[in-house]
Design goal:
Shape of chain A: globular
Pfam family, one (chain A): CbiM
Mean pLDDT of chain A: 91
Membrane topology (chain A): Multi-pass membrane protein
Structural class of chain B: mainly alpha
Distance between the termini of chain B: 26 Å
Number of helices of chain A: 9
Largest interface: A-B, 64 and 58 residues
Number of domains of chain A: 1
Order of helices and strands of chain B: HHH
Distance between the termini of chain A: 35 Å
Mean pLDDT of chain B: 88
CATH topology of chain A: Arp2/3 complex 21 kDa subunit ARPC3
Radius of gyration of chain A: 20 Å
Largest sheet of chain B: none
GO biological process, one term (chain A): transition metal ion transport
Protein name (chain A): Cobalt/nickel transport system permease protein
Strand content of chain B: under 5%
Subcellular location (chain A): Cell membrane
Strand order of the largest sheet of chain A: 1-2
Low-confidence stretches of chain A: 50-55
Oligomer: heterodimer
Helix content of chain A: over 70%
Strand content of chain A: 5-15%
Number of strands of chain B: 0
Largest sheet of chain A: 2 strands, antiparallel
Number of helices of chain B: 3
């Protein structure tokens, strides 16, 4: 569902770029707080590199656990990148592929999940022209912010009242349909095609692709968790 | 966890040979509604997941896929290094 350049008008592209930058900025600040810790002045002084820090009053350093988390994010990103290349056939000459937003946020949490998907989108558009450069903001909003960050909370709240399997699958299905809806609105409001034409067409296809997303997400979460346990 | 890196490389390589080459949901919709031609892909080095110096389409895509994973991996290592130095 990577929007190429040319489908969106400049105003929508720019607006989405701004919104994506703000959302990702917030995710980065959350992630940074999670992977670093404030080291006390005393500890830094003991370690012999404290002179400067004492003046600034302690500072944030990457923790061991934080480093592990970034490493996990890299692994998740490469797995999602690979899985997104695997188009599976849907009816009538159409294919679909994983987005992986819910997979990323279930494994890593909503903020790291969104950053992982955004990084994958960045690499895809930059190196592979898969998704436009100007449309990158829109693609990040659709798949990283809505598909990963927002749909994480569907998983999170559903898990409290239903089995986790149901929560994962429902969130994954919703992520595809929600991203497709946002994508349709962006293209529609750009004046590329009438909203009344694109919304039903996109919904019809992506409600089917969503089923595959749900099944693949479930499988990937299980594989990933069993690999984490092995360590 | 290291296993996962090889699993990703495997999936990317397999995708090159077995993935469906039909257009995806958005492309198909654009084709049906007649606005596909408005889309423009910029001429990136590995546009469309293929590299210019391998003529066989499948091997070309496999190479591009593996390269993509290496790019992500290097980015991840680079970010960790930068944060450690800070």
């Amino acid at each position: 569902m990577h929007i190429p350049d040319g489908f969106l008008d400049p105003k929508i592209s720019a607006g989405m770029m701004g919104a994506a930058a703000m959302a990702l900025g917030y995710c980065f600040s959350k992630l940074k707080a999670a992977v670093t810790a404030v080291v006390s002045q005393h500890a830094l002084a003991v370690a012999g590199k404290g002179v400067q820090s004492i003046a600034s009053g302690g500072r944030r350093v990457l923790t061991k656990l934080g480093e592990q988390k970034i490493y996990q994010m890299g692994m998740t990103a490469s797995l999602i990148f690979a899985a997104q290349m695997f188009n599976f056939p849907i009816s009538s000459g159409t294919s679909g592929h994983l987005i992986g937003g819910v997979f990323a946020s279930v494994i890593l949490g909503p903020f790291a999940g969104a950053i992982v998907i955004a990084s994958v989108l960045l690499v895809q558009s930059f190196f592979f022209a898969d998704g436009g450069l100007l449309a990158l903001g829109a693609n990040i909003i659709n798949m990283a912010v809505l598909g990963s960050l927002v749909c994480y909370y569907i998983y999170y709240y559903l898990k409290k009242i239903a089995p986790e399997v149901v929560a994962i699958m429902a969130a994954a299905w919703t992520s595809v349909v929600l991203a497709a809806l946002a994508c349709s609105l962006q293209i529609g409001f750009s004046g590329t095609i009438a909203l009344s034409e694109i919304i039903p067409a996109m919904m019809r296809v992506h409600m089917v692709i969503g089923i595959a997303e749900a099944l693949i997400t479930l499988a990937l979460v299980n594989v990933f968790r069993s690999m984490l346990k092995e360590e | 966890m290291k296993k996962l890196f090889w699993v990703s490389i495997g999936i990317a390589a397999l995708a090159a040979f077995f993935a469906s080459s039909h257009p995806d949901g958005l492309e198909k919709t654009a084709e049906q509604l007649g606005f596909l031609a408005k889309g423009a892909a910029w001429r990136s080095l590995m546009a469309g997941y293929s590299v210019p110096f391998i003529s066989n389409q499948m091997f070309s895509t496999a190479f591009a896929g593996v390269a993509g994973i290496l790019i992500i991996f290097c980015g991840c290592v680079g970010i960790t290094r930068l944060m450690r130095k800070e």
